[in-house]
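Example 3.2
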Amino acid sequence: MTQKNRRCNPKASRPHMPGYGMMFQEEWKALPWSWAVERLSTAHNYWAATTRKDGRPHVMPVWGIWLNGMFYFSTGRRSRKSRNLAANPSCVICPEGASEAVILEGLTEELNDSIVRREVREAYKKKYDSDLDSYSADPIYAVQPRVVFGLVESSDKIRGNPTRWRFPTL
């Protein structure tokens, strides 16, 4: 299986959620991965959570792109997010809208591949009508998912139990 296929076909399971049994319904099944991908692809704003060197959390909104099983976002090289990621590459990304929550836990890496950078820049321009080239000195981060959680509070569009998708380590 290729690296891209591993990222695009995670294994679904029931998350361990003590005290939240009421969220699980017998007649419902796991949420489909396609639902999570749509949320990761179409949201306009995302929350990015990082950790400072002293362990304190830091959360800020970002714009981002879901492309080929990875999440990409840019931030200023001297921003708190960027400094935190230099010390600890773990982060959490959440699309806006907690009633249909997607929580992506992953590891970041600064994107240096020129072909992928061009793909991300083109997708970013199409989605936001904004050009990342004007921020060429700033890093673009690739977030490799480790685990993604999906939770639906109440929706006319989708029914499903809370779901955890695990990604194989590469």
